[in-house]
Fold this sequence. Notes:
Distance between the termini: 48 Å
Structural class: mainly alpha
Radius of gyration: 22 Å
Shape: globular
Number of domains: 1
Order of helices and strands: HHHHHHHHHHHHHHHHHHHHH
Amino acid sequence: MTDALSIFIFAATLFLLLGLGVWVGAALLATAILGMWLFTSTPIGDAMAITIWGKQSSWTLTALPLFIWMGEILFRTKLSETLFRGLAPFVCRLPGGLLHVNIGASAVFAAISGSSAATVATVGKMSIPQLRARNYPEKMIIGTLSGAGTLGLLIPPSISMIIYGVTVNESISKLFMAAMIPGLTLALFFMLYVIAWALINKKTFSPIVDTDDEPLSRRLADLLPVLLLIFGVIGSIYSGLATATEAAAIGVLGSIVLSAMQRSLTLKSFVNSVLGAVRTTSMIMLILMGAGFLSLAMGFTGIPRALAEGIDSWDLSPLALIAILTFFYIILGCFLDGLSSIVLTMAVIEPMVRAAGFDMLWFGVYVMVVVEMAQITPPIGFNLFVLQGMTGKDMGLISKASFPMFLVMCVFVVFLVIFPGLATWLPGVLS
Length: 431
C-alpha cells in the first residue's frame, strides 16, 4: 500500500469521524485501531495498552490537573471584578481607554489559569457589561477579548505548553521561562493595535469616562492578592524552588486561600471546581491517548518518516520551513482545536524541526502562537464559541471582530522569527 493511500485512509477516517461529531479523542483512537488493523499484524489490544499507559504515566503530566483545578477555582471567584477595578486606573488614560483592561486582565488571568477559554470567560463575564455600559464599540469589546484570551495558551502556566513539553520531552520549567517574555510582548502588540485604532477613530470614538475617585491605594489592594498568587506560582518555578508540579500545588492552595478571602468559596463552588477540573483533564487525557496510539499506528506505515524525508528532499531553508508550517497550522486550526493540533502533528513535525536546527524551546513558543490562532479561526474556534454564548451575537460578527487580532498575531510570528532571543534569552539566563 502506497504512502499516499495510507495518508488518505488515515485523514479521511479521522475527518469523517470529526465531521460526524465524534469526540476528538475517540475519533483518534478509532482511526488508530483501523490503521493497526490494516497495516500491521501486531495485537491491537496489547499495543494500545502499552502505548496508552506510556503516555499517561509521565510524572510531568501531574501538573496538568492541578493547574486546571486552580483555574476552575479562580473562575468561580470574584477575580474578574477585582481585576477590572484594579487595572482600570492604570490604562484609562491610554488611547482606547478601558479596552486595555480586556488585554491586561487576560494577561494576568492567563498567568494563573493556563486555559484560553477560561481566560475569555472569566474576564468577559465582568468586562462585557462594564464596557457596554460605557458605550465602547461591540466589535472592539469582542475583538480584544478573543485575541487577548489566547494568551492563556502562551503565558505560563500554559496547559498546552505542558502537553508540548511532554510530547517532545522538553523541560516544562524551561518552556515556561521561554514563553514569559513572548507572552507579555504579544499582549503589548494587542495594546498597540488598540492604541492605533483609537487614534484613527478618535473623532467617532467617545465612550463614557469614569468619574470614580476611589484612591489608588485601594486599587492596588485589589490587585495585590492576584499578583501574590502569580508570584507564588511563576516565581517558585523561575527561582528553582519548585518544579512545575510543585508550583501547581502551590497555585491550588493559593487559589483556595484567595477565594476564601473573597468569601466566594462555598461547598457548592468547591465541588463544581473539582468536577470541572475532572471533566477538562479527562478530555485532554483522552486526546493524548488517541494521539499517542495514532502516532504508533502511523509509525507502522512509515508515514512520518516518508513525510519528513519528502519535505527534507525539498531542501527548504529554515525560514521557508517555518512559513510552510505556519500556513499548515493555520489551515489545521480551522478544523481542530489547538491541543489536538499539537498532539496530532508533533510525531511528524518534531524530527523535521530538530533536523533543521531549531531550538525546541523557541519552537514551542512559536507553536503556541500559531495554535493560538486556531482559537479565533472559524469554524472550530473555541474562543469564538465562548464569546458567542456570552454576547449573544452571531458567529459572523464575532469572527470579523476577531480578524484584526488574528492579523496582529501573524505580525508577531514574523517578529518572533526575526528576534528568536525573545524566547531563548530568559531560559539561558535562569538555567
